[in-house]
Structure formats: structure tokens, C-alpha cells
Amino acid sequence: MPRTWDEATFTAKLSAFIQLPDAVAALDLARQGDERAFEAIVKASVDYMEGPDGVAYREALRALATPELLARWLGRGVNERRTAALALTAREPAHVALIRKALADADDAVRAIARRSLRSWRRGDALHGLARELLAHGDARVRAEAAEILGGMADRADVDTLRDALAGETDARTRGHLTRAIERIG
Length: 186
Known about the structure:
Helix content is 68%, strand content 0%. Helix 7 runs antiparallel to helix 8 and helix 10 packs parallel to helix 12. The longest helix is centred in the C-terminal third of the chain and has 14 residues. The radius of gyration is 19 Å and the shape is elongated.
């Protein structure tokens, strides 16, 4: 994305946006391609995702949050990793590897945010492969989410995989999710 604003204009517009978020301003900032706006756009998109401007905030986020930017932020400090995790969505096939990385993060909040990102979409080959892989994850909450995804995809080829996971599952809640997934595919 080409930058069309000079430094003073960008800084002023970013400061104004931080003070009073606005969907049009979010899109304008995102189109500058400057990752200094990333945290503010993520915050606004979280704050206003259910409002009438939610679609515009998500569009701004998609415009700025390239897989490369997200990978950089997932490799930084805990606050940056949390911010990047909030921008992840399983709707984007390129984010699947980043979700995998966030699910292995040392910070529980990053992992929790990544689990929520799995709920944003229930289709796609990359997500299907990740869900199968996540049935063996060390966190029972992740395994439960993987079972939900596979159950929603309703692919008969997953029944044996789900049954194998159920046979070795020790967490009662996750066992319930695995059982329901098998029944949904049925």
C-alpha cells in the first residue's frame, strides 16, 4: 500500500483516530500501510465489531493486517502478540499457520484469543487440516474447539479420527464435544 500522507499528517490523523475512532478514518489509516496504526485499528475493531461500523473496521483490519505484519507482531512482546492474535481469523487461509503459532504461545491470553479466532469460520481445507491436528493439542479447550470445527464440517472421513481422539481423551468437557461431533457427522 502506498503511503500518501507525510509524517506529520499521518501522526495527526492517527492521534485523532485514537482519541475518537471512526470507521472512515480507520480505512484511511489502513490504506497508508503503516503498522503504527495497527494497534489502534485492532482496538477500534474490537470495540465496535458489533456496531453498525463493524464491517468497515474489519475491512480496515484486513487491509493493514497482512500475514507478514501479523507474523512480526506474533514474534514480539506479550502486548503485541495479544494485539496480533485479535486480528487473526480462520476465515483467512493465510492466517491458519499464524493461529497455530498463537495457540502454542506462552501467554494464556494469546492462546485464548487464538481459540476464539477458530470460531470465526468453520470451512476451508487449511482449517480442516488444522482442526484434525489440534485434536492432539495439549490444551483440552483447543481439542474441544477442534472437535466442534470437525463436527460442523460433517466430513465422514473424520469420524475415525474423532473416535480415536475420544478413546484417548481424559477431559470430560472435551469428551462431550468429541461425542457431539461424531453424532453430528453420524
